[in-house]
């Protein structure tokens, strides 16, 4: 596994680069725009750091490039690598459309299964009933998780769990780095204000 | 032998409900009685056992053809449904349905299942008719049998879940020993239609024994292994035991909470960064400069991590921006493109030009604050 510190360094480097590229065009942005830009560049930074090896990173980039207004920003942030990345992402988009068909079939099957289960439920002993209830709970939760992890709706359980592992690691690194920078900047601001007051 | 077979086959035949056909059920009941009289033998003679009702199978074959049309839509679902433990064994033979002989075998098997579980005959009575319908679905079926060998291969070759593999293999062996059956692996099952070992396999309570459910079980074990990893990753999760399904639900709950909280934190932090810094640049030199007296206590980590990479990321920038940087003090109020490049000055530069940098950033910050 990658070491977390190297992950953070990589992430920070790319993020800063992305921000730099992004701000070179626009001068003044209000808070919301800035936040969006920051978040977007952070997402793209880590996603590009994975180089499309994980499916959630691909989904992130795909989502970013989908909206037209974000797209230009995203492309600029990604910079020269954007072509390669977007190509890689677009190849996975084809699988997304196939996955949609599979997904609809799965939904159909699931609805039929639930009907069958209801019918059977009266005969089965307690233990199996409990099992089916637990199964349903797990299924509900996996659905929620699928919504949370980007690009997770089209994955089966096993890969979903792997993606979640990766995604959690990424989120942690992102949170740590952002927190450090935020607190550092705030401290400097405070210091500067204090210093100026003293002067 | 008979009661064992009954338990096994009963577990197998807890399949999806299909449409009943009264005639067929009657036929099957006759078959059942005929089969009951046959003294069953050990596993190796299973094929002999199957051979006995061959004539009856041929009859069924002809009768089933008439019912081809009816259960087609119904059988569509269970074919795709790998996830259900209690699916019938039918889909396991889908890859072999190109041969007409297999149909006979399937019907033998179907009747064999019917034989042991009288009460489930209505469900399984439509099974042979479904098998005839299955012939038409050859396309989708090989895909599923392909997935089975693949998953079985995965099961065999995955080093991360070796323990699980051993466990599942032990279970398989137990099942084998149960009847002396010939079931070696799922690959062999899909290829070897003659033996039909699934019926001999001793099922665990409440579980079917077809190759699909084995694949399902292997998958689930993998999932459990990953869930354990996740458990260790997510804080506060080690208490819940993940082997039970209820445990799995709890672990998933924790994971979901964790992911949601992390995402929320990211949002909040990005908002915070946006407010703290009116312009979306972060003067890294000022951040990590040796005004470390105040910073080091609170930002130890931020100091540590940049200390590690002073050279690497910014080497490219350094040469370009050194020249521009000299203009910094002059062009302080100019927030043009050059200013952006200055943010990547390395620590060494910041050490040398600490004061001017600081004053520059000071002023810049002040200006930003006023905005």
From TrEMBL, chain A:
Compartment annotation: Nucleus
Main location: nucleus
InterPro entries per UniProt: bHLH_AtIBH1-like, IBH1-like, IBH1_N
Kinase as UniProt keyword: no
Keyword Transcription regulation: yes
GO biological process: regulation of DNA-templated transcription
Annotated keywords: Nucleus, Transcription, Transcription regulation
Cellular component aspect of the GO annotation: nucleus
Residues in IBH1-like N-terminal domain copies: 5-67
Pfam family, one: IBH1_N
Official protein name in the record: IBH1-like N-terminal domain-containing protein
């Amino acid at each position: 596994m990658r070491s977390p510190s190297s992950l953070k360094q990589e992430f920070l480097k790319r993020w800063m680069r992305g921000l730099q590229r992004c701000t070179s065009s626009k001068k003044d942005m209000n808070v919301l725009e800035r936040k969006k830009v920051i978040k977007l560049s952070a997402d793209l930074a880590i996603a590009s750091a994975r180089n499309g090896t994980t499916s959630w990173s691909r989904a992130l980039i795909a989502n970013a490039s989908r909206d037209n207004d974000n797209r230009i920003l995203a492309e600029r942030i990604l910079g020269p690598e954007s072509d390669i990345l977007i190509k890689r992402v677009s190849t996975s988009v084809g699988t997304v459309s196939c996955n949609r068909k599979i997904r609809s079939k799965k939904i159909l099957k699931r609805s039929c299964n639930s009907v069958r289960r209801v019918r059977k439920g009266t005969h089965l002993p307690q233990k199996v009933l409990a099992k089916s209830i637990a199964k349903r709970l797990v299924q509900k939760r996996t659905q929620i998780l699928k919504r949370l992890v980007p690009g997770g709706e089209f994955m089966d359980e096993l890969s979903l769990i792997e993606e979640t592992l990766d995604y959690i690691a990424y989120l942690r690194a992102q949170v740590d780095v952002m927190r450090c920078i935020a607190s550092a900047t705030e401290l400097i601001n405070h210091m500067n204000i204090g210093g100026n007051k003293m002067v | 032998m008979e009661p064992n077979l009954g338990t096994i086959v009963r577990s197998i035949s807890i399949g999806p409900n299909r449409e009943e056909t009264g005639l067929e059920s009657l036929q099957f009941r006759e078959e059942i009685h005929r089969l009951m009289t046959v003294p069953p033998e050990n596993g190796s003679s299973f094929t002999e056992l199957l051979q006995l009702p061959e004539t009856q199978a041929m009859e069924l074959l002809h009768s089933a053809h008439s019912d081809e049309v009816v259960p087609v839509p119904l059988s569509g679902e269970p074919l795709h449904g790998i996830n259900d433990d209690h699916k019938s064994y039918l889909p396991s033979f889908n890859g072999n349905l190109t041969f007409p002989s297999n149909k006979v075998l399937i019907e033998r098997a179907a009747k064999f299942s019917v034989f042991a579980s009288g009460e489930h005959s209505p469900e399984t009575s439509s099974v042979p008719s479904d098998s005839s319908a299955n012939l038409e679905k050859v396309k989708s079926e090989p895909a599923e049998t392909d997935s089975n060998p693949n998953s079985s291969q995965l099961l065999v070759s995955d080093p991360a879940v070796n323990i699980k593999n051993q466990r599942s293999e032990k279970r398989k062996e137990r099942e084998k020993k149960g009847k002396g059956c010939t079931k070696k692996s799922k690959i062999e099952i899909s290829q070897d239609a003659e033996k039909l070992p699934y019926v001999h396999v001793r099922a665990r309570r409440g579980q079917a024994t077809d190759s699909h459910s084995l694949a399902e079980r292997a998958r689930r074990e993998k999932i459990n292994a990953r869930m354990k990893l996740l458990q260790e990753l997510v804080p506060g999760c080690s208490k819940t035991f993940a082997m039970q399904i209820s445990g799995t639900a709890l672990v998933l709950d924790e994971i979901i909470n964790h992911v949601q909280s992390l995402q929320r934190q990211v949002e909040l932090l990005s908002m915070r960064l946006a407010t703290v810094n009116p312009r979306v640049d972060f003067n890294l030199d000022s951040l990590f400069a040796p005004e470390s007296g105040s910073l080091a206590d609170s930002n130890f980590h931020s100091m540590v991590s940049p200390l590690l990479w002073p050279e690497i990321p910014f080497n490219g920038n350094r040469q370009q921006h050194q020249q521009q940087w000299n203009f910094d003090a002059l062009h302080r109020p100019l927030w043009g493109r050059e200013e952006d490049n200055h943010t990547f000055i390395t620590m060494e530069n910041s050490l040398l030009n600490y004061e001017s940098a600081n004053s520059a950033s000071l002023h810049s910050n002040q200006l930003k604050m006023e905005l």
